[in-house]
Amino acid sequence: MKQRIPLLLFLALIGVGPAVLPEFHVTLLNYIGLYSIVALGLVLLTGVGGLTSFGQAAFVGLGAYATGYLTTAHAVSPWLTLLAGLAVTAAVALVLGVLTLRLSGHYLPLGTIAWGISLYFLFGNLEFLGGHTGLTGIPVLELFGWKLDTGREFYYLIWLVLLGAVLATQNLLDSREGRAIRALKGGGLMAEAMGVDTARVKIVIFLIAALFACVSGWLYAHLQRFVNPTPFGLAIGIEYLFMAVVGGAAHVWGALVGAGVITVLKQWLQDLLPKIFGQSGNFEVIFFGVLLVLVLQRAREGIWPWLRRLVPLRSAQRHVAAAEPLPARQMPAPGTVLLEVKGARKAFGGLVANNDMNLSVKAGEVMALIGPNGAGKSTMFNCISGVDPVTAGEIRFLGERVDALASRQIARRGMGRTFQHVRLLPTMSVLENVALGAHLRGAKGVLSSSLHLERAEEARHLAEAKRQLERVGLGGHLFEEAGSLPLGQQRILEIARALAADPCLLLLDEPAAGLRYLEKQALAELLRRLRAQGMGILLVEHDMDFVMGLADRVVVMEFGEKIAEGLPEEVQKDPVVLEAYLGGVE
Fold it and tell me: In 3D, which of 150, 159, 198, 125 has the Cα closest to residue 35?
């Protein structure tokens, strides 16, 4: 309960604000609330999802102009115009998202600048929207017969909407869908291998951020009862992003902190700086530029993490509730052929990484894929798991051809994998990293997550993650940050994450690298147990003692081609293998 006292105190202060504050400060709080709603969308989009957008002000404009035009030109009820604005914004954002989110690197923010400028000039050049003069006479909002015709009355609506958006965003991030959003920063390759449709997730958070901005614009139009293009330009879009970054781009409450700090500071500087310099001008913009550079250098996480260390809002979860197990896959009978690779060839331009590769893996066996560095083993793994499509040949999994499928589609069919270079979400807990592996075993969507209607499913996912961590010997590290574990334990954590997907075939890329002797022994014992349970395992490893003591069959590669296959003892005596890999017959 003590952890919630700061939150309750904040809510109490917000509640009594209009009753004790002068009109100017109430107006300032109204604008802080409006800006916070937009910045909250940017926290989700940019801070958590890693997608930078400078064009959110244009979506604010869509919400404002939709209600301004429909209420003044067609006398539509303001509450119906909210639905119309959300529909228009969703349609525009969907088109822009499909076009823009295919870009990466610096091209993505440049793309958002382009359409942000385009929409701004569109608002000013459409005559039915009033051109650059704008629209006047927007009606007063009424709520159950109560007219919100002053800033003090409108205040409560703005802050109720904002706090509702904060709650919904927190709920979303604390869910299966939220883990998928957070996984975007860990790279699309890892997320897709866990069954996450990264293209869909990007579109979803882009739409949510746009809809938040639209709601802010709708509120702004009815607060001002007048709208013109000025508040929806690129400069304001940059300011919204600035608010999110200064407050704490990866933190929900950072949106409120950033909007509050920037709004108050801007007002204060607009009054103070002209007196200092003896002339009027946009001196605060210069100050903000310097401030942003300092923040990026000294406090990249923003102000909120610093505040939270002083006054934490709630303690981290320290237990996992018991829950009904997730449905388990029926394992194929031992000896069933799980994977068949026939004549696989992978070329990158003129470089042939794999050529005429043939191998198979059966249920209940460990197949080892060995070879010198650069032999093409990891490339073969990527082809099998759908990361890189083969240039020629075919790959079949459980009798179905999968070489044309995306990695998330192959994962759904029962193939799990780890990576040569560990791919975890370092700031996320060990438990949640493993729960991400069970993503494809859930079905609840964004709306259910935002309303917290998926709690039963979420409990099952976390319980499954705990079970897998105990299975691999990491049960004592559930709530530690994944990035704090040593490399060897991080590799074991990746195996637990792969097991959470309930695979029947496990692809392990150098799982023993970085492990000490006893850890390797424990890993070997775990793999033997999995094999005894009917799981097929395809293993890439350089530790020959580990491989030869574990594998049922061994395939040897050199220069992208298979040069030998057989039982471990046969491969160790093969002169071709000895010459190519183990240093020669002598």
Answer: 159
